[in-house]
Amino acid sequence: MKCSCKSVCRSFSLFLLLLVPAVFGLNLDGTLLLSFKYSLLSDPLSVLDNWDYNDVSPCSWTGVTCAQIVGGGMPPDMFSVISLTLPNSKLLGIVPEDLGFIPHLRTLDLSGNFLNGTLPNSLFNASELEVLSLANNVISGGIPEFFAGPKSLRLLNLSDNALAGNIPKSITSLQNLTVVSLRSNYLTGPVPGGIRSFEVLDLSSNLLNGSLPLEFGGQNLRYLNLSSNKLSGSVPQEFAAKIPANATVDLSFNDLSGEIPESISLSNQKTEAYAGNIDLCGKPLKKLCSIPSTLSAPPNVTTNTSSPAIAAIPKTIGSTPLPNSPGTTPSSGQIPPQHGLKPAAVAGIAVAPLAGIAVLAALFLYIYQKKKKKANAAAKETSTATINAHEFKKDSAPAAVKETRNLPTWPCLSVITNGEETSEATGSDSDENSSNYVTDHTQLENQKHEQVKNERSLVMVDGETELELETLFKASAYVLGSSGDSIVYKAVLQDGTAFAVRRIGESGVERMKEFEGQVKAIAKLRHPNIVRVRGFYWGDDEKLVIYDYVSNGSLANVGYRKIGSSPYHLPLAIRIKIAKGVARGLAYIHDKKNVHGNIKPSNILLTPDMEPIISDFGLHWLIHGKHSRKSDGSARHFGSKRSTDDLYEQSVTGSPFIAPAGFVGCTSPYHAPESLNNLKPSPKWDVYSFGILLLELLTGKVFSDRELSQWTVGLVAEDPNQVLRMADVAIRGDVVGREEAMVAWFKLGFSCASLVPQKRPCMKDALHVLEKIPCCSN
Fold first, then answer.
1. Counting C-beta atoms within 10 Å of the first and last residue's C-beta, which end of the chain has fewer, N or C?
2. Beta-bridge partners for 227
3. Are 226 and 198 a contacting pair, CB within 8 Å?
């Protein structure tokens, strides 16, 4: 009944609008534009205030461009609407069918708003439309077919939405279409073939599957991005043949395999263009393809009767039928004169395999002897170092130690991380097999004994853990991650006990007593959802902080797939469990009159049973000093995983994504806006971060302050269906039957992430609300 009433009301409103031209003289274009204005739920910037039905023409309205159309059936003094451009205007609503009925509309740009619903078919039938950009909205559903098609369409940008389904095959029939960006959606199915007119094609960060098309086309391509999909199989030669040599191609992070075709267009790409395809080989990758075996039988010789010696037979001989072989007549056992071989040649054929075996045997023996010598030398060195460790002098340190002067008190932990700086959380590694193994406890021990005792000190502050300095320095170490000011390692003791150790190269704390006081203050906070601090090491050139090791990675890398899609492939119950655990930990921190100040996914560690553990509390104090207000580099830096480039043009220059509009510079979206003013830290900062985190768990996307300004608790209550449509696609099945709980979680998220600090609840109240909302079992 409600739907029927809404339909009647909308039809009646449109009927009234159609009466406007007769009464006030507003032309049809203006009437259709007014229907768009009245369909919007919110216009906070008042960009449409001058759209007035009393006007005769809409040509002076904001965002509207008109032109005189020759032969358009209009009076000579009348102009038609040819363009509507309202990007980044914070408009909330749907894209109505009426916009597609504007007769001479050529450009429609409504990107960077909060438009939802589905794509209207009318836009894809607008005969004169040339530019259609609806990027950076929350539009869902599928892409309509281009049957009647806007034949003049040149640019189509639908990136960063929630579109699903297959890419319509009819898109390739648009001969004038040159720029297409559909990245960061949920599109499935194959990559369309028959691409001829496209110059820019970005289909990255979707769910496209199948193999690369043989009849791809692409003769005019300048930029092709198919990264971060589920494409499999080999890269066909036919696919590569049509792509121009100067085109930029990105096939990274798929499941492609086999050899990259030897074409200029693919060989000219950077190696990053093929990253994430572990079974790809060939140029430009450093991974060479395996050489096919030469022990194959030549023509006319069956594999079950030939011996390995056949590999040494020249092709001219192998092409001649052998006596008594299939297809030949019996003979006396002598080689016919016309095909005779000299005795030396026969001897060479017989001896060749034996010579090859002898060479291989010699090679294996050489390798064995080398390994044996190295093993003996290493054993001897370890024995000597253990007995005479205290007698080692600085000038007698092993060369490997001398080469790590940048880590004077923990030299074995100098590693190369591909030139990149990571931001993994304390005490976590998501994939131990990919960690950098950097253990050499003998070298570590030797250099440690070069320092006098009063220059170093290991202090355990938890009252439980017993750990000797020598034991720590004999531990094996794995790099977990790094930030601008510190590196995190997993240290495994000889008894198998694991700790997370954060190495701080430079600290704003100059005295050990002050550093010890701050570590002890942090260690006093004991809560199931806060990582435990066990102790610290104080040295002249570096400091180490020892934490519990949490083995299941962080929230930043659990199921992380790509930009513009759900980073958390977790059931709804697990997401809420994580949110509750974070809320409990923050409420405890605030109850103890402290502020974390850097809540973000990489600082939320996860146990094997998906219980969240908050890490890096107090790290800012230890690096910069307790009273410093210097910005935390790791907290402020907003890294490459979520690019802040804007608009599709960045794709043309090589950026694979378009980030949500509203992110500014390198500011992290998890930090409260007021924190940029260098104020004294407030618990409201953590509440804001928790709100962003909760919304990300619910929607699979990171909200910017621009998006947050469009949502209030009241608006959520007014249109709960719209809120439910924002739920992450991966959990929409879990939402069925829990709609009321979902709306309540959204209300809490937007309340905590309010741009006005005074409107945010305290963390204790937020936790109380969260625990009252009923949820499914874990």
1. N
2. none
3. no
Q: How far is CA 555 from the centre of its chain?
A: 13
- DSSP-assigned letters across all residues of 573-627: HHHHHHHHHHHHHHHHHHHTT-------GGGEEE-TT--EEE--TTHHHHHH-TT
CA dihedral 397, 399, 405, 411 (to 10 degrees): -70
The pLDDT value recorded for residue 53 is 85
- Please give the pLDDT value at position 708: 76
Residue 330: cis peptide before it, omega within 30 degrees of 0: no
Dmax over Cα atoms in the chain, in whole Å? Answer: 113
> pLDDT tens digits for 696-717?
999 888 887 777 776 666 666 6
DSSP code for 638: -
Burial profile 341-352: b = 16 or more Cβ within 10 angstroms, e = fewer: eeeeeeeebeee
Question: What mean pLDDT do residues 64-79 have?
Answer: 71
Tell me the per-residue pLDDT of 641-695, one tens digit each, with 9 for 90 and over. 333 333 323 332 222 222 333 333 336 789 988 887 756 788 999 999 999 999 9
The predicted structure's pLDDT at residue 294: 46
Written as one string, the DSSP assignment of 62-74 is: TTEEEEPPTTSSS
Q: What is the DSSP string of 104-169?
A: T--EEE--SSEEESB--GGGGG-TT--EEE--SS--EEPPPP-SS--TT--EEE--SSEEEEEPPG
**Tell me: the pLDDT tens digits for 613-642?**
999 888 877 776 654 444 343 333 222 233
Residues facing 109 on adjacent strands: 85, 133
CA separation for the pair 37, 385 (Å, rounded)? 80
What domains can you pick out in the chain, each with its CATH number? 7-188 (3.80.10.10), 411-772 (1.10.510.10)
Give the residue among 744, 706, 751 at the shortest CA–CA distance from 727: 744
For residue 293, what is the DSSP state? P
Q: What is the CA radius of gyration of the chain?
A: 34
Sequential DSSP letters for 648-691: THHHHTT----PPTT--TT--TTS-GGGGG-PPP-HHHHHHHHH
**pLDDT tens digit sequence for 161-216:** 889 999 998 888 888 899 999 998 889 999 988 888 899 999 998 989 999 988 88
Which tokens belong to 205? 């960060």
* Rounded-to-integer distance, Cα 721 and Cα 94, Å: 13
End-to-end CA distance of the chain: 37
Q: What does the block give as tokens for 414?
A: 């100098």
* Strand pairing class (612-614; 107-109): unpaired
